[in-house]
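can u pls check wat happens w/ fructose -6-phosphate
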Amino acid sequence: MNIRVYQSAEQIAGAAASIYAAQLTRKPDSVFGFATGSTPIPTYQALIKLNQRGELDFSRCVTYNLDEYVGLATDHDQSYDYFMRKQLFDHINIKRENTHLPSGIASDLQAECARYDAAVDTAGGVDVMLLGVGLNGHIGFNEPSDAFVYGTNIVNLTESTIAANVRFFSSRDEVPRQALSMGIGQIMASRQIVFIAMGEAKATILKQAFQGPVMPQVPASILQFHPNAVILLDEGAASLL
Ligand code: F6R
């Protein structure tokens, strides 16, 4: 694994942005896998800056996000669709029709998972997948479990994830209990992974994930087997490695 440690979120964002710049130069119609949460925000801000300065062109690229909450419409201010528009898509020259998230309000969620997998495959798979990690080691919303799941699936969020998400909702009852998430297999099929973690709170799970055994109880541990994963950490997140 290619682990790099930086002193600030801005430096991490700069490093991630340079990977995107190189990728878009090589392949202007790249397929990007994007994540939500607090971790990617500085990277998205760096991408917006480069795009607005005319140094990065998203006009031909296509995106597939990792996950979406079940039950939240795209105009709900906590939906990941809304997040992506506000944090990135509304500020860059990407075509709205080229951006994709699974629909958490589809009438048949199982069929929606299959449709999403097929769409990613038809697009040629993901060139660069951006990942954060949950305190319990989840990537996307693939929670600790007894087996690695391949494709997009309906996930029951764990108590730890629900607790981590309460801050974004007005009450605990409003936090969705399920999400649709790209599977571990699909994440691993991405040609490159850019994994970012910041802050000491993530240090313990990163030690388990990167220096412990590969097992579905620590979903991020699978990244030890990815041939092209760049791990960008700040000093806090890297403190136990
Ligand atoms: C969100 C996602 C999650 C987050 C993780 C970390 O699309 O895939 O795995 O990356 O929960 O969240 P933050 O960045 O808020 O610590």
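Residues 35-39, 66-67, 132-134, 138-140 surround fructose -6-phosphate (CB under 6 Å).
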